[in-house]
Write a structure and sequence with these properties.
With about 400 residues, the chain is an alpha/beta fold. It contains 12 helices and 11 strands. The strands form 2 sheets. Strands 3-2-4-7-1-8-11-10-9 form a 9-stranded mixed β-sheet, sandwiched between helices. This is Acetyl-CoA acetyltransferase. It comes from Streptomyces yunnanensis.
């Protein structure tokens, strides 16, 4: 299998040159702009490249004119920009756009960066809610009935239970295994082990989700630098190649969602694997957006790691653990490590670190025989399964 099989003839290959996190978890004394800058500086150091190579920039979620305001704060004057905002899937969609632009020669080095003080803002009473999509447009027909974001995920989970017999214990296993993976991550916000009983007995948030079925709220940021293959000889570390990507949108209102048990990852995943020239069975690890336990389960189905309706059985028996059959969210994910709003970029950072062999002795994934993983997939989900972006990465 060729790790460059997803590149069309005449197009340049695209590599991940640098990745980094800002300070994460409980960060009370920084602004979102400062977290953007911290992550960007660290990603540049990780790449070994000078900031002068950056001619593309992608950012969303901060300021009225993102990414203009953030680029100005960072002292960048890009000639290619992207401000696509589709919720948690934003960063995989942006990565797909950036890779296409680099491959076509429209940019040479694109910096993707994110930062948020979602937790600190609420603690300091600078705002009263973590997220609001407002009540305009199509949402005006749902908001009067108290149809919150978490309620939409809860309804979808209940439909999966009804249709396929998925159990609350199986959903709880997703949270238990995420916390177990977080135990090996010194940057994770919550590292103590939890049990299925603890998940099930927690305070109810939106039936069937108790507190531990839901992602944590944290502060933090991260950055990813994508470059054309021309820059690879100058990198400080071996590259990780972007092999293929796919994007998809589904619905805004729940009444327009054809099937609560199918997410747009069923489309974005199929496109990403086709373009990369690989099969789900070849993937060594998966980083999946996990705002709620059900999101992990249904995305595993839709990416093709198991058949539709079999996600509950698939997540049992420790399959998602670092040493499991398919390590998933090896840093602990949004359920345990960090979730400062739109977490999609963190998926790419963790996937790259795993493929480089940089995850550390307590969370590094190894193939049978001890070899490093060669293929990873990062799949982000936005809104309430409204959008999806999937990126397949290969070790250099």
């Amino acid at each position: 299998m060729s790790l460059t099989s997803g590149t069309s003839a005449g197009q340049r290959k695209v590599a991940v040159a640098g990745v980094a996190l800002s300070d994460c978890g409980r960060v009370d004394e920084a602004t979102p702009y400062a977290l953007h800058a911290q992550a960007a500086r660290r990603a540049l150091v990780d790449s070994g490249l000078d900031r002068s190579v950056i001619d593309g920039f992608a950012s969303a979620g901060l300021g009225a004119l993102a990414p203009v305001e953030v680029a100005e704060y960072l002292g960048l004057r890009p000639t290619w920009v992207d401000s696509t905002a589709v919720g948690g899937a934003t960063w995989e969609v942006m990565a797909a756009h950036a890779a296409d632009a680099i491959a076509a020669g429209h940019a040479n080095a694109v910096l993707l960066v994110y930062g948020s003080t979602a937790r600190a803002d609420i603690k300091a009473k600078r705002r009263t809610a973590n997220l609001s999509f407002g009540a305009r447009g199509p949402l005006q027909f749902e908001v009067p009935y108290g149809h919150s974001l978490i309620a939409k995920y809860a309804m979808a989970a209940r439909r999966h239970q009804h249709q396929y017999g998925t159990t609350l214990e199986q959903l709880a296993q997703v949270a238990v295994q995420a916390r177990a993976n977080a135990a090996g991550n010194p940057d994770a916000m919550y590292r103590e082990p939890i049990t299925v009983d603890e998940v099930l007995s927690g305070p109810m948030i939106a039936d069937p989700f108790t507190k531990l079925h839901c992602c944590i709220r944290s502060d933090g940021g991260c950055a990813v630098l994508l470059v054309a293959e021309d820059h690879v000889p100058d990198l400080a570390k071996r590259p990780v190649w972007v092999l293929g990507s796919g994007t998809a949108v589904s619905h805004t209102t729940m009444s327009e969602w054809d099937d609560f048990t199918v997410s747009p990852a069923a489309v974005s995943g199929r496109l990403a694997f086709q373009r990369a020239g690989v099969r789900p069975a070849e993937i060594d690890l998966a980083e999946i957006y996990d705002a709620f336990t059900y999101m992990t389960l249904v995305t595993l189905e839709d990416l093709g790691f198991c058949a539709k309706g079999e996600g509950g059985a698939f997540v049992e028996r420790g399959r998602l653990l670092r040493d499991g059959e398919l390590p998933v969210n090896t840093d602990g994910g949004g359920l345990a490590a960090c979730h400062p709003g739109m977490r999609g970029l963190f998926l790419l950072v963790e996937a790259v670190r795993q493929l480089r062999g940089e995850a550390g002795p307590d969370r590094q994934v190894r193939k049978p025989g001890g070899a490093l993983p060669q293929l990873a997939v990062a799949s982000g989900t936005g809104g309430w399964f409204c959008s999806s972006g999937t990126v397949v990465l290969g070790a250099g």
